[in-house]
Amino acid sequence: MKKSLNLLLVTMMVFALALAGCGGGGEKKPADSGNGAAGDPQVEEFSLVVRHINVRATAQKTLKILEDVVKKTESEVPGLTFKLDGVEDTVNRDVKLKAEMQNNNQPPIFNLFGGADTQNYAKTGRLLNLTPILEELGLADQFYNLREFTVDGKVYGLPESGFVEGFFYNRKLFEEAGVQVPKTWEEFLKVCEALKAKGITPIALGAGGGDGWAANMLLNNLFVGLGGPEIQEGFVAGKSKWTDAPVVEAFKRIIDLKNKGYIDPNVLGLKYSQGQANFYTGKAAMLFDGSWAVSAITGQDSKVANDAGFFRMPNVGGGGDGYINGGWSNGYGFSGKLKEHELKAVKVFIKNFYTIENQTRGLVETSRIPSMKGVTDLSGANELTKSIGEQQASAKGAFPAFDAVVQQEVKVTLEGTIQEVLGGQISPEDAAKRLQEVQESANKK
Amino acid sequence: MNKIQRNLVAFAIFVVPALALYITFYLVPLFNSLQYSVTEWNGINDPVYTGLDNFQKAMQDEKFWVAFWNNIYFVLFSVFIQVPVIVVVSIMISSVRRMLDFYKLTVFLPSILSTASVGVIWQFIYAPDAGLLNQLLRSVGLESWAKIWLGDKTTAMFSILVTNGWQWTGFYIVLVLAAIFSIPKEMLEAGEIDGAVGWKKAWLLTIPLIRPVIVVTMLLSITGAMKAMDIVMIMTNGGPFHSTEVMATYMYKQAYSLSDFGYANAIAIIITIFTAILALVYHVINKRTEVDY
Fold this sequence. Notes:
Number of strands of chain A: 12
CATH class of the largest domain in chain A: Alpha Beta
Structural class of chain A: alpha/beta
Distance between the termini of chain B: 28 Å
Order of helices and strands of chain A: HEHEHEHHEEEHHEHHHHEHEEHHEHEHH
Oligomer: heterodimer
Strand content of chain B: under 5%
CATH architecture of chain B: Orthogonal Bundle
Largest interface: A-B, 32 and 28 residues
Order of helices and strands of chain B: HHEEHHHHHHHHHHHH
Radius of gyration of chain A: 25 Å
Number of helices of chain B: 14
Number of strands of chain B: 2
Number of domains of chain A: 2
């Protein structure tokens, strides 16, 4: 008797748990167009989900900006409540949002990457065309660059911030080795040699495991430097090839850096973050990285927060000299199937979110490169951020990262190939040939 | 027993929930996967039927075969290195008189850790500069043995296999130990009186008597090795240059970094077929598994 009572209790508990689980899941659904039961009969209550990726401790300040916008928008739109739904960035990008897009139940407002993501979603009509809204709100000319969110002339997303890439360097170690910021590739090699002679690892880099992309940043800057921004623009159209001289030469220079011991010899045994850590703990003198690295370099674990500087890719003797690698590829997109009142709320959200004030906050508080023109007040920003701003401002122009231009297959192939190059497994010519083959087969699709 | 089988309602109460779960979470996805494996599908567009193209592509895909052979290394390592270690250690522990629980707990501990933690712990051990392994080698004067364990294609796969072995050995040891302790005392005593002591006893008595459990251990190791994924993803993510890719990580990459869901589903089906074939072959080899005490 007692046994069966126990069994019954256990069964009930299991059911209760299962039900609780279902309940939790159900609540997360966007409960649009409420029943308007509350008080005022004229104001219909509704809620909108905002999917964001600011879930890490380092993103708290970014989240705060979003929360402030949400509060402001709620106060301006009667009946509206926002539901913030934070999801880790790659999970959102590769799994969750993708699945939602497939079923056409994407949230009304969501974090979105430009490039291939935006193109795919726009083609299936899942994204809201923002072109008329930008006109209406007077935002059309306010952004630096919307190319990654533009498909067939229509804008489908708005970048929240941007990035530039270049060398971070440790001023103290440079002083120790008696070297200055290099202006040309020859000077750069001399700086590396001097650092190495002092027993300092010249370039920190972690490109092992799945992090081949970290080395591709440097490669990308080298071949654009040598061949000009047009070289990568031509890959898809077939106007230029991976087998062209600048790309092969870029591979050669990477091999040269590795063979001379300028790039950390452990490069394939380290993950991206470990490579970065070697720089900010003072073990290596330089780091080629994007401006997003500032938060780590000036963060709590950093030993070089006050000694870090930034310089653009030195002139390598080609058509891309003086340009800086930068892009505006992450921001927000909006669902293409909004109801009238939801669309109105989304417009207010855009108006409140994309302001110079928020962009300034993004730069000063979180060291993120603005996506909108007109940020002038840099007071409060750290020195490193300011110097990045200067390097960006003094560049001839910006070119996007190659992966925003070429197909995903090419990007993934290069991630494996650069590891082979660094590991001495493949010649520059063969590496270039392989990429061109992948590029051509991707172009045919 | 018969009473319940005759009472259809009671029968349904017991069977339907399990059956419903099985259908929803196993059969339906399996058929979905089959369906998508013969299409070209990027996850968003409407799938386009392409027949057996994806399977043909896999058969001609060099990287897929690298991944396949890595799975085979995984299996061979499990069967020929891990399982003997498991049996030897189990027999050693079973003959310990004092602190038996301590040993059992110690060997079992790694298997209660999540694979993610194990992967990260061993990444630290294998780290090129600050890693425990290289520091150990350097401190005993074996500087030249120090390697970039996970970044060198000659050592990376083996390093992962060792980690995987470390994680799961304890779990199987506990299984085998239980089998050893369930052998009737009188049989072992009779053997001892007949002169079977030490390793002779282990080889002639213990191992034949726990054969069924060893067979199960091997089977679990084989199927586990065929579908290995998490440990590789965390430790090397298939790198350097795809030298540690296994079929499952390759499948994952096709789906989630290349958005080629059709091909990924085809690979999933191939993994299922290969694993089934291996398990079947193994089953045939080990037909005679029952032991009567």
